[in-house]
Amino acid sequence: MVKLQIAQDPAADELLSTDSFALLTGMLLDQQFPMERAFAGPAKIRERFGSLDPAAIADADPEAFADLCATPPAIHRYGRSMAGRVQALARVVADEYGGDAARIWTEAPTGADLLARVRALPGFGDQKAKIFTALVAKQLGVTPTGWAKVVGDYGKSGFRSVADVVDPDSLQKVRDFKKAAKAAAKADAQAK
Question: Is residue 165 in a domain?
Fold first, then answer.
């Protein structure tokens, strides 16, 4: 079994390593919020809700589920809004993948198909889908033909995204890379 170290918290990382829906949910939460806190979100949901079963989450009362996601420490800076996204994701996993999120990546015959499957999930845009595809390839060893081509730069070695986070040092290197990329983009925009 692969031991992920994305949340930088042993219990949360254990859950990410053993529960495919937890990993997928962590990726969903990874936006406008510190990466390691986003990936710790699934552990908070399981602790408060009692389960990470996609069908149970999808069927939960939306208001009650939003309350548990927004209770401090919240699963995300926008806990109530993200609760709805988690439920929408859970519905797709329950209905289209029989509750087994890993089927999204283990049954994809090609990298293009894998990217398309991830991209079709609620809350997953093009960039997030590429990063998640790179994550399952680099850290879980799920490497269908053509995966590196479809993810572009996220498939390269280096420290570009959560796909490259394997310990506290690599987390800091990814942060530094993102900070430098934002500064370069800002400088380009100002130069125009």
Answer: no
